[in-house]
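## tool: complex_structure
## caller: assistant
## args:
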Amino acid sequence: MTDDYEHYEAVVVGAGPGGAAAAATLARNGIETLVLERGVDAGSKNVSGGLLYAEESSPYTIDDLFPGFREEASDREVTEHYIHNIAGRNVKTFDLHDLHHHDTEWADSVLRRKMDSWLAREVHEMTRETGGGLLTEVRVNGLLREGAEIVGVTLDELDPIKADVIIGADGVNSELARDAGLMDWEEPDEWFQGVKAVAQMPEGAIEERFDVDEDEGVAHLFSGDLFENVRGGGFLYTNDQSLSIGTVFHLDSIADQRAEPQELLDNLLTHPLLADWIGDEYTELEYSAKLVPDSKKVAHPSPYRDRLLLVGDAAGQMQAQGPIIKGMNHAVTAGALAAEAFVDAKSRGDTSAAGERYVTKLENEGVMDKLRPTRYRTLGRLGEVGPVASAMNAVTDSVVGRTAISALGDRAESLFNSPFLMGMLPDTRMGYVTVPTVVAEQLGSPVEGESTVEPPELDDRIGDLTYDVDEGNPHIELRDNSFAASGTAVTACPVSAKDFGGGCYRDEYVGSNGTEEHVVSLDTQPCVECGTCAVVADTNWTHPRGGKGVEYEQG
Amino acid sequence: MPEIDPTDHEIAELGPKIKDVDDADELREMLELEESGEDRAPVKTLIESRIEKLEEEDEEVDPSSADLDDMTVADIANLVRDVDDVTVLEDMLEREQAGQDRKTAKGQIEDRIESIEGSEDEAGEELEYVPPEEKHPDLDHPTNDKQWVENIDGGTYRDMWVYCETQHGELIDVSREMLGKARELMDDYNDRYGVSDEVGGSEDSSSGGDEDGNPEDVVAVLIGDGASDLTEEVIAYGADRVVYHEDDRLERFRHEPYTEIFCSMARAGGQVADEDHEDVEWKEYDEPRYTVFPATNNGRDLSALVQGELDSGLASDCSGLYIEEAMISNPAKTGKPGDSKEFDRILHMKRPDFSGFEYSTILCIDKPFRDFHPQGASVIPGSFEIPEADPEREGEVIDFDMDLNDDWFQVEVTDFDTLDSGIDLTGHDVIVAMGRGIGDAPTEGIELGLDLVDAFDDAAFGLSRGVITSSYDFDGHVEQYIGEDRQIGESGQVVEPDVYIAAGISGAIQHKVGMDESDTIIAINTDPDADISGFSDYYIEGDLFEVLPRLTEAVESGELAAAVAEASDD
Ligand SMILES: Cc1cc2nc3c(=O)[nH]c(=O)nc-3n(C[C@H](O)[C@H](O)[C@H](O)COP(=O)(O)OP(=O)(O)OC[C@H]3O[C@@H](n4cnc5c(N)ncnc54)[C@H](O)[C@@H]3O)c2cc1C
Ligand SMILES: Cc1cc2nc3c(=O)[nH]c(=O)nc-3n(C[C@H](O)[C@H](O)[C@H](O)COP(=O)(O)OP(=O)(O)OC[C@H]3O[C@@H](n4cnc5c(N)ncnc54)[C@H](O)[C@@H]3O)c2cc1C
Ligand code: SF4
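## result:
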């Protein structure tokens, strides 16, 4: 009898920025709200680069919903923003001031463990008042249906729970979105893979090396030839007492080129341009990784089904505005709008209309147009079609192209600062590699100095992470262990590598009597739950049970 | 008209605008406009929460200076709820009398004073006991009292009793943890309570303790077939007295006899003692003041049964304990509505809720005409530290004599199984462990390792996780050796043999923590720089397929043993 199940007005799955915003808005409107989070603590599973934007045009920003957020949960206010075009030692730096400040009320660097756990405490207090609360260490493993209709969630640790609205804020690789048939994990070109290292900084070093005040911060972006033709770029953000240094690449590019993400990150860490910033002592506090959806391709135009409303990464609402990455802010907006939609629907006596209202709000508030710009829909996609892409590439790299870029000189900087242009750049090598490399070669000058940074090997990176291993319950299963089907994961998995026996995926040759098979084996213990192999390998992919798996201290 | 008409704006624009309005009245007007106009729920909440915020800012009223005339009775009722200082309240009362002198307002303040001070006309007024059958004549089954248990009223209670669970004839860790905690609690208890003050301020700590100034004890309870062997140990861990009962039939835990024995011990010597134990030398009080059980499978069973039988309550799965006073206003406990009463010597039992996000503190308190003692808790293993054992400690040992009724053993244990703990790699002289270095010929690699194991007198065969999680195709005869029960390391077994031989293992940190306490570590690896070289005593750079057979030969001919013995002598 399903009627015996526990019932709440609203269940929010996931306590990231999207879930927190939704829960706060629901609670503020007196809706009985239960929040479910699989980590031991909110933030213990989450990774971002770390720039959280508050957009002027946005109906909700995080500090509207959580007064005190900036004092308590974020690190530095980032006021300066540069992009470095790199070709070998040659670097041409552009100030991204205009792009950074376009539509920006403020932008703060954040570390997710600190940020999300603070939000969770606030959310717990608020939702408790409504008769709900926030539970950690519980994993939702699917949707509860009555007939064909979604009416609640099922969990690993508890009995099923019914709700009038379910906010799916469970992030990228949303099991809810997949269960509802709203998202699939098939096409690598719909995702980015982000990999990050957090480096410890001595007291006062950030102020000195970056020439900023104590509460000010800087953002640096990197593109060009240091990533071996893999499409994507790097970032460096200043936190209170550490640096977040990472890379974000198109997953299809990582997969096709059999690139090793940890090596690409190391290329950045050891580039002489970063030597002075990082200093002589490189202490890596944490290595982390996660997929990010590309909203241009996957932001769902109608992210709901029955009572389930998806927000944030779960709905593909992660915008790459050229080199600037905006996921957290959109998750916040969408979370609050979804909650608002339910409140509206309830006040009109028809909670089943919440989904429709949510879609209307996303459109009316201009969120959808940021996520899936019409310009990109027409122009960008075209540029990605094979022949066109390589033609453009060839032109840029040709004498004509080079001359044009030289002639542009510093006006090239203003092109980079156009949100309009950045929104329609096609996802080809041209934008990420060719243009920046040519810019650096034609306009840049060489950096001095040598890097002494020695990034840790993968086994040490894994060794430094905290895991609560779910003995005997691997959360990922290989459906097809042939190298042809799943071999890409050996390189693409951020904690695996060719010729490394300590990773999740290892390629092996097995067989006897002359018939040798090339296969992969999988051990999920070192897994950081990034989601990559859900897309690039043939797996049954789920998250670990509540509280199990990796636990990030920084995030 | 307010400056902003919300109905002219989108929600998005309103957020920032509303934030700038500082006048609550203006906001109320805006709210009205919205209500009569578009009536959008989120807009209303936006405005309402702004109003609330503004009012909160004004609100922070100080009770000692608040202008009561300005306040409604409801406001006053809210205000006094947070005031605990009677002088402040009396001052408020005077101000109200001097001002509007509202009867209802005065009533609120007086009620609060009364609930803090406790009612003054307590004396003389005796509550009268009405049996539940009379109190609820309409019910044919009044459940207030459980007729089948012996309830006590106004009994005497002493000591903290700790049920010390054993397994295979040994104390389990949580038993030691509870003894340590009980010792700490009762030492503090004996320091704090007692009559020393009234008697005339004697500093002598021995005058602390129960209501008459006698110190109270930690009493350990041992039940089982080998209970008498453990009495010294429990004293060493902090017990003042051990009560034990030993019987061959008690080899493993069984509900009935264990419950009967524990309760008989707990009641011995008091008003509800069973026939055979009405007079015992070691105990005069009715029942224990406190009981503590482990929250293990058996401990959970026993704690619930015992506390039920003794007609008390149980706080299960606790992670914190302390003894303190408690101010209680629940009339079910105080006997009179409106009264607050201080109960002292209350065991506060903290237990995690909501997967540890919140804690509840459970109190078990007597009520009029029915005592709730012992105050009992079961404790999550690992919540407290294992104390340092003190073999010099002395204590009293009581062999509790009792006839066990055959009926209690009607359930017969015909068969039992120790949960398969698989293969125990600890306690061997030598371990031979194989890693992914066998990859080129996995079956052969395992065979070579097993050959080496056989060459030693007392060796066991282990694996790195890398082999266990591989997709290697092992032949049937070696397949049985591949499994997680042979894994050495962080998520496997931890071993410390005299000699650890690691073949084709790179020495990942998670493997290292399972073996680096071994006396002598010998590694075989083709890579001269593998991590394991950093913590090996002997490092053989070479192919395990060539090196292992030669090692086996050396062992069989006695050369290796000699070489190692020689090396470990230096
Ligand atoms: C390297 C990198 C750099 C980035 N840089 C930026 C940046 O600079 N700025 C920016 O704005 N964005 C950035 N992003 C993107 C940003 O992190 C995401 O868009 C954002 O976190 C999405 O928020 P969310 O609330 O939708 O999901 P998440 O933050 O992922 O939260 C989802 C939550 O749900 C929980 N959960 C998941 N499944 C379940 C389940 N089944 N049951 C219970 N709980 C579950 C998770 O534990 C998690 O707490 C970056 C991402 C990466 C990886
Ligand atoms: C949370 C967590 C818990 C873990 N727990 C454990 C654990 O409890 N136990 C455990 O063992 N691991 C554990 N691991 C895995 C651990 O990190 C390593 O992956 C594993 O120990 C590697 O096994 P290996 O040394 O056999 O393989 P590899 O690291 O691949 O090493 C193989 C070695 O063999 C050498 N070699 C190759 N060919 C030959 C040859 N012909 N002759 C000689 N040498 C050769 C190579 O040079 C190499 O050094 C855990 C990992 C995580 C993340
Ligand atoms: S196993 Fe899959 S999910 Fe886990 S870290 Fe590797 S690629 Fe990511």
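## assistant note: Chain B touches chain A at residues 10-12, 15, 40-42, 45, 49, 354-358, 435-436, 439, 442-443, 465-466, 469-473, 475, 484, 491, 506, 508-510, 531 (CB under 8 Å). Residues 196-206 of chain B have pLDDT under 50 and may be disordered. Handing back to user.
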